[in-house]
């Protein structure tokens, strides 16, 4: 009885955090994390587009892709933020649509960086692309709680994790690493930084997923805050790494002339 009363109080506190007029409340931490991520994505997009002018020609496409990733995310975040503020539920479908577009774009960054040193392999691209799609589709089915996959949530999550581990393996132990070892300092930096992001930065997602399991509202808040932090790390910081490497490489090439 006391427990139930406690729960009621808690849920009314949670409910009072919830916007009643479609406005983001200042006490809604999850909503604020959506807000900050939205701003970060837009600022990053502008930055990458402007900085594109300052890097050597072979890095320009990489900068464009970095801007596309944050630009697409910005567009989804404007919607996801509103979805959270209005309903206090996870914007699951929009989130996965965003990932399905931006993750393959990030995988193509690897291809572009390798292409810049003439070491790109289409096979590697398709391996990374395929594995990232398996990871996302399995994760979506596991998270979606649709009837067709009832009871399969854990195996589906495991498939997603395996696909991600395969990507990590390809990056650290596969053919790509060897090819990069005698490339310019900038290219090596970019490759390594991106491999670290796909290993450490991407780990935030399955951690958020595990914390969101169980589905009561506290967990959903944690899940969304972690996913939002992860998106900023993996889109903005990822693009910054590409930008930094491009700048480093452009300067080095300039001083050789
Ligand atoms: C910009 C968005 C990015 C980089 C999204 C990345 C998403 C992941 C790395 C998701 C990983 C997941 C697993 C490893 C297991 C299954 C659940 C997922 C989909 C959350």
User: What's the main sheet like?
Assistant: none
- Beta content comes to under 5%
C-alpha end-to-end distance: 79 Å
Query: Could you report the average pLDDT, rounded to the nearest whole number?
Result: 88
Judging from the principal axes of the Cα atoms, what is the shape? globular
Radius of gyration: 20 Å
Residue windows where pLDDT falls under 50 for at least 5 positions: none
Bound molecules: retinal
Tell me roughly what share of residues is in helical segments: over 70%
> What structural class is derived from the secondary structure elements?
mainly alpha
Element-by-element helix/strand order: HHHHHHHHH
**Distinct helical segment count:** 9
Number of strands: 0
Structure description:
It is a single chain. By secondary structure, the chain is mainly α. The chain is 83% helix and 0% strand. It has nine helices and no strands. It is globular, with a radius of gyration of 20 Å. The N and C termini lie far apart (79 Å). It binds retinal. Retinal binds at residues 99, 102-103, 106, 135-136, 138-139, 157, 160-161, 164, 202, 205-206, 209, 231, 234-235.
Question: Which key terms come to mind for this protein?
Answer:
257 residues, mainly alpha, 9 helices, 83% helix, globular, binds retinal
Tell me the layout of helices and strands.
Layout lengths: L1 H16 L11 H23 L5 H31 L4 H25 L5 H23 L8 H21 L1 H6 L4 H28 L4 H40 L1
The chain binds retinal.
């Amino acid at each position: 009885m006391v427990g139930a009363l406690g729960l009621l109080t808690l849920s009314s506190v949670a409910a009072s955090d919830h916007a009643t007029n479609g406005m983001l409340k200042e006490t809604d931490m999850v909503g604020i994390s959506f807000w900050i991520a939205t701003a970060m994505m837009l600022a990053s997009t502008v930055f990458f587009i402007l900085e594109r002018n300052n890097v050597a020609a072979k890095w320009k496409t990489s900068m464009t892709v970095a801007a596309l990733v944050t630009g697409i995310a910005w567009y989804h975040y404007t919607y996801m933020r509103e979805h959270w503020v209005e309903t206090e539920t996870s914007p699951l479908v929009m989130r996965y649509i965003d990932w399905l577009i931006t993750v393959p774009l990030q995988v193509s960054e690897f291809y572009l960086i390798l292409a810049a040193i003439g070491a790109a392999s289409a096979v590697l691209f398709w391996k990374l692309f395929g594995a990232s799609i398996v990871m996302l589709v399995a994760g979506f089915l596991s998270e979606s709680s649709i009837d067709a996959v009832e009871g399969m949530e854990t195996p589906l999550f495991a498939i997603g994790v395996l696909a991600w581990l395969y990507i990590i393996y390809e990056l650290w132990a596969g053919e790509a690493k060897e090819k990069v070892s005698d490339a310019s300092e900038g290219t090596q930096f970019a490759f390594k930084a991106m491999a670290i992001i796909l290993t450490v930065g991407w780990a935030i997602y399955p951690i958020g997923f595990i914390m969101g399991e169980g589905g009561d509202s506290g967990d959903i808040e944690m899940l969304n805050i972690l996913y939002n932090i992860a998106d900023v790390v993996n889109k903005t910081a990822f693009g910054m790494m590409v930008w930094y490497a491009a700048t480093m490489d452009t300067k080095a090439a300039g001083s050789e002339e």
